[in-house]
């Protein structure tokens, strides 16, 4: 009621006109700055609202112990900037090479202060339109049939200034601490305020509530000075190397697992936190008990009158009293500023800390409201990297491309190539694309086939979850079938209970590629665009519906899918089978022969030799091809009869001088008779 009255007073107390922008972005964290960059590059009318005096205010406080767990790999052995982004988890996307995070820190796990400096420079060097010290306190809708989405978004800040926007982009992240209320929870310290000085914990016994990186980060900081640390949570520990999810426990923070398993007093327990209760004794020690023991008792009556579990079970695990209890349960999305008219609802189950959104990152309740960054992680929670910079920098770009098509008639960027370049195009992308690599199973490259499969149109990093809406969302047509390229782990390789180091875990043979465990490219072929019903009914854990044909490129230890026999040849044969065509490259000699012996020339001959494209032949090139086994060693005996060898050689030289033979560059050629 108080919030409603306050909101009413906002509009009653001010008659000021609304400041209008096409796009309003709430939050100047990494995702807010990223979408601001794309909007600015496109010349759109936008504003970013930031409640703090600088961008990235979350990183000014967190992580509390200042070490990020996003890797900052300085060297990869390659100069390809797109490939290097696969191992740079902190940089945002831009055209400015000064804004690569490796220029701000050389640490593999950087200090959070470097991220704060980076985001400040990103906003200032690119001159992004960020309005600081502006806290949006209320958001509602105004119905209007002339608006882009049938309504405008009305925003009010802490100074009662009003704003009107056609599209709202929420990039606030998840910053409200998760709190569990139980008897005695007032004695619990929060991760957001607890001391980070290890000396404050010297000689103390500590209980940590939580099982994520913030809990283990806190434990790691005090591991060497405490009597012992116990950690309790509802679920078992999830190790990121087993789940392949970067949000699970990382090795840099897991020292407590060593001391637990090596019996050095510390330990992990599983239990529902809502069933717990904490009782404080006269000496200030905290005792753990269960809620049902306190149902009919007054906790203030004193610990002597309260039944503790050890009174009935003398070896109860947490019978020793604690000096401190610390809550490290992560964060959740702030729903409080959104009026009910927006229907911003929390997700279900383990996604309840995020708002409900579609695979297109648009709110399920309100058209034109998109959620970006960490708060959009419900789309791929515990599956991919959409909750982290190295993932949402790509999903943010995808949202911008969707908006460009919807509101400005700018189709999704694409390139058109002759069908002879299909294999090369796929190989190039799977070997260097960072968006496919980081957002595996979520973002996909789409290849739209032209009529008669003579050419194709290539779209990069489209959200796979809205494949059925591709024509509407991109402005591109798919009447002749399509290929979808996506990266995947093996179906049964990831999980908290999986042994990912078992013997013979890797697959090396191309014929067993479908059993690959590690991240590898998968190509789906559809004769027509899948329907929304097919998307809903797809097999469990499949990113896409069942295709007409599917091909796995076998996993590679170096993530280098360029081996001619193991990677390229099986892929080309798969594509040929789908298209019923020959995608090999040929010498002019073979194309000349096919012209007289076949009813239909291979596409390479149609698009190259017949159009007089290729290299001019010479004796050195011809001899090299013969020695490499790419051409037959014709001596011209059939044409020159019984002439002497010298005469034949002279005639052959004269033939090479007088006649030019179109030949394709050797590095792209495959012998017509190699199969």
TrEMBL record:
* Listed cofactors: FAD
Q: Which GO terms describe its molecular function?
A: flavin adenine dinucleotide binding; monooxygenase activity
Q: Which Gene3D superfamilies match?
A: FAD/NAD(P)-binding domain
Q: Give UniProt keywords alphabetically.
A: Endoplasmic reticulum, FAD, Flavoprotein, Glycoprotein, Oxidoreductase, Signal
Q: Name one GO cellular component term.
A: endoplasmic reticulum lumen
Which biological processes are named by the entry's GO terms? ERAD pathway
Pfam families, from UniProt?
A: Pyr_redox_3 (PF13738)
Family designation: Belongs to the FOXRED2 family.
- PANTHER family found in the cross-reference section: FAD-DEPENDENT OXIDOREDUCTASE DOMAIN-CONTAINING PROTEIN 2 (PTHR43539:SF23), FLAVIN-BINDING MONOOXYGENASE-LIKE PROTEIN (AFU_ORTHOLOGUE AFUA_4G09220) (PTHR43539)
Assembly information from the UniProt record:
Interacts with SEL1L. May interact with OS9 and DNAJC10. Interacts with TXNDC16.
* Role of this protein: Probable flavoprotein which may function in endoplasmic reticulum associated degradation (ERAD). May bind non-native proteins in the endoplasmic reticulum and target them to the ubiquitination machinery for subsequent degradation.
Its protein name is FAD-dependent oxidoreductase domain-containing protein 2
User: What is the native source organism of this protein?
Assistant: Pelecanus crispus (Dalmatian pelican)
């Amino acid at each position: 009621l108080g919030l409603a009255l306050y909101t009413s007073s906002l509009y009653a107390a001010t008659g000021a006109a609304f400041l209008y922008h096409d796009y309003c972005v709430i939050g100047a964290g990494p995702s807010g700055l990223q979408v601001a960059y794309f909007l600015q590059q496109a010349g759109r009318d936008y504003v970013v609202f930031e409640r703090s005096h600088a961008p990235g205010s979350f990183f000014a406080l967190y992580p509390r112990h200042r070490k990020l767990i996003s890797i900052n790999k300085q060297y990869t052995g390659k100069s390809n900037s797109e490939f290097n982004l696969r191992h740079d988890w902190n940089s945002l996307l831009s055209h400015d090479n000064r804004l690569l995070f490796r220029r701000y820190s050389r640490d593999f796990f950087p200090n959070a202060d470097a991220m704060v400096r980076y985001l400040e420079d990103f906003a200032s060097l690119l001159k992004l339109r960020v309005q600081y010290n502006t806290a949006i306190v209320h958001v509602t809708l105004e119905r209007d049939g002339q608006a882009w989405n049938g309504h405008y978004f009305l925003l009010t800040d802490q100074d009662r200034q009003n704003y009107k926007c056609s599209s709202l982009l929420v990039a606030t992240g998840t910053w409200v601490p998760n709190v569990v209320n139980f008897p005695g929870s007032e004695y619990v310290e929060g991760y957001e305020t607890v001391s980070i000085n290890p000396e404050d914990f010297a000689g103390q016994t500590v209980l940590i509530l939580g099982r994520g990186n913030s809990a283990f980060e806190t434990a790691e900081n005090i591991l060497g000075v405490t009597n012992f640390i116990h950690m309790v949570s509802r679920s078992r520990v999830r190790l990121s190397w087993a789940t392949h999810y970067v949000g699970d426990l990382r090795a840099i923070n897991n020292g407590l697992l060593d001391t637990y398993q090596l019996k050095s007093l510390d330990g992990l327990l599983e239990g529902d936190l809502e069933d717990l209760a904490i009782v404080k004794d006269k000496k200030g020690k905290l005792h753990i008990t269960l809620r049902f023991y306190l149902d009919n008792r007054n906790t203030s009556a004193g610990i002597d009158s309260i039944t503790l579990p050890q009174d009935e079970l003398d070896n109860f695990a947490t019978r020793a009293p604690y000096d401190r209890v610390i809550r490290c349960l992560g964060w959740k999305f702030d729903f409080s500023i959104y009026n009910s008219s927006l229907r911003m609802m929390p997700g279900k189950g383990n996604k309840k800390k995020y708002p409900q959104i579609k695979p297109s990152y648009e709110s399920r309740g309100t058209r034109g409201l998109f959620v970006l960054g960490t708060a959009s992680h419900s789309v791929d929670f515990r599956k991919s990297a959409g909750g982290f910079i190295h993932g949402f920098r790509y999903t943010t770009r995808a949202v911008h491309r969707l908006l460009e098509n919807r509101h400005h008639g700018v189709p999704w960027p694409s390139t058109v190539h002759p069908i002879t370049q299909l294999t090369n195009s796929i190989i190039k992308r799977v070997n260097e694309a960072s968006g496919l690599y980081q957002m595996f199973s979520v973002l996909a490259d789409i290849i739209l086939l032209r009529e008669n499969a003579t050419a194709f149109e290539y779209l990069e990093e489209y959200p796979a979850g809205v494949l059925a809406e591709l024509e509407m969302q991109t402005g591109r047509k798919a009447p002749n079938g399509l290929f979808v390229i996506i990266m995947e782990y093996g179906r049964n390789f990831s999980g908290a209970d999986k042994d990912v180091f078992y013997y013979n875990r890797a697959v090396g043979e191309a014929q067993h590629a479908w059993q690959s465990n590690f991240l590898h490219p998968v190509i789906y072929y559809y004769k027509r665009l899948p329907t929304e019903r097919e998307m809903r009914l797809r097999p469990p854990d499949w990113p896409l519906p069942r295709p007409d044909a599917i091909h796995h490129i076998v996993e590679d230890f170096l993530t280098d899918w360029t081996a001619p026999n193991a990677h390229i040849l099986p892929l080309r044969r798969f594509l040929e089978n789908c298209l019923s065509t020959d995608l090999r490259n040929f010498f002019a000699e073979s194309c000349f022969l096919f012209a007289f012996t076949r009813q239909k020339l291979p596409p390479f001959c149609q698009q190259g030799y017949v159009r007089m494209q290729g290299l001019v032949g010479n004796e050195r090139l011809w001899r090299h091809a013969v020695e490499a086994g790419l051409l037959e060693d014709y001596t011209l005996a059939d044409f020159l009869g019984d002439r002497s060898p010298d005469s034949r050689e002279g005639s052959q030289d004269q033939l090479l001088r007088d006649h030019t033979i179109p030949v394709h560059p050797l590095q792209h050629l495959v012998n017509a008779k190699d199969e």
